[in-house]
Amino acid sequence: MKQALIIVDMQEIFFNYPQNYLFDNEQLVSNINKLIKQAHEKSIQVIFIQHTSPNKQDELFEGKNDWKLHKNLLISSTDKIIKKSKWDSFYQTELLDYLRNNGIEQLIFAGAQTEFCLDTTIRVAFSLGYQKNLLFKGTHSTLNGVVLNARDIISHHESIWNNRFLTVTDGQPTL
Description:
Elements: E1 3-8, H1 13-16, H2 25-41, E2 45-51, E3 80-84, H3 95-101, E4 106-112, H4 114-127, E5 134-141, H5 150-161, E6 167-169
Parallel strand pairs: 1-2, 1-4, 2-3, 4-5, 5-6
Helix pairs in contact: 4-5
């Protein structure tokens, strides 16, 4: 089964300001880089999704420092970067066409934020027919919310996703 690793919104905004730090952000980057390295070694396509605001005043407007993909990610020239403007990585982007044109059958998800763009993208992927997807614990994160802290948001979403929208896997990320 042909796979693709999809990394959602791992952008500098989550690393530049303490109030925006993703939960366990250093371990998160390390775990995602393990997946990227394995994907590159196994010729699995790596796709970075990059939130891009149409508003020039927004910190995620194309070209601004906060908009850039995180500098510590192991990005290769063979990786695909797809810009999105909504929570759904498929909405008005080339993602679905790219996956279909490249015969991708299984998606491996990672990134941020758990309850926003990652959750929306996972659910839409399932609805579009990608129903054998994977997610490794420790490869996605979020910020503390008003009602739940980041750890609880992550646990809650993993419990909803697992065996419904994808398979959540424990242990070291291994492709």
